[in-house]
Amino acid sequence: MPTNTNNHNKPRSFGKLDISQITEYLYVAASPNAEYAGALSNLNVRLVINMKFFTPAKVYQEPPFRMLTLRTFDFIFIPIPIHKLEKGVETALPAIQNGESVLIYCRQGRHRSVAMASTILIAKGYSADDSMRLVSSKREVADPYAWHIQRQIRKFEKKWNNHKNSV
Questions:
Q1: How confident is the model over 32-51, as pLDDT tens digits?
Q2: CB of 28 within 8 A of CB of 43?
Q3: Do 102 and 26 contact (CB within 8 A), yes or no?
Q4: What would the 3-class secondary structure string for the chain be?
C-alpha cells in the first residue's frame, strides 16, 4: 500500500462545506453549492467529478475547474458501470500527476463518490481493501462496504490489475 502522506489522522473540517480530504490530492463531498467554489479553488481542486444524474452548478463547469459528469444512480439494481469508473480514473490520474486536486461528489458523498475515490486510489497502487478503509476513515458518512458499491470497487480492482499486468 502506498504511504498516505496526509499528516491529518482526523478528517479535516471545512466548516459548512460537506467535504472530506482523503489524501493530499483527493476530496469527496456531497453536492457542492456554487458558493463554495472559492474554497475549492483554494484547495487546488481543478478537476470536479460529478457522479449525479443532474447537471452541476455552472461555476464548476468554468475555469479554473474542469467538470467530468458521469451520470450514475445509487440503486442496488443499477450498479455503477465499470466503464464509468474507468473514465473517472483515466481523467483523474493526469490531473493528479500534474499536481492538481480532484473533488468527487454525489448527492450525499456516501456511495458513488466513495466508489470513484476508491477506484482512483486503486489506480494509484492501493488494494481495494486499503482504499475502502482509507476513504471510510476520512469520511464519516462514507459506506464503501454497501454490497452494491463494494462489488463494483472489487470488479474495478480485478479489471485494472488484469489490464495493468497484461501491458
A1: 888 889 999 999 999 999 99
A2: no
A3: yes
A4: CCCCCCCCCCCCCCCCCCEEEEECCEEEEECCCHHHHHHHHHCCEEEEEECCCCCCCHHHHCCCCEEEECCCCCECCECCCHHHHHHHHHHHHHHHHCCCEEEEEECCCCCHHHHHHHHHHHHCCCCHHHHHHHHHHHCCCCCCCCHHHHHHHHHHHHHHHHHHHHC
Residues 6+ apart with CB under 8 A from 56: 31, 48, 50, 67, 69
Q: What is the pLDDT of residues 104-161, one digit of tens each?
A: 999 888 999 999 999 999 999 999 999 999 999 999 999 999 999 999 999 999 999 9
For the record, the C-alpha cell of 162 comes out as 488484469
pTM of the model: 0.88
**Angle of helix 147-166 relative to helix 82-97, nearest 10 degrees?**
60
What structural domains does the chain harbor?
Answer: 19-166 (3.90.190.10)
Show the cell assigned to 152. 463494483
Distance CA 150, CA 132 (A): 8
Please say whether the beta carbons of 53 and 73 come within 8 A. Answer: yes
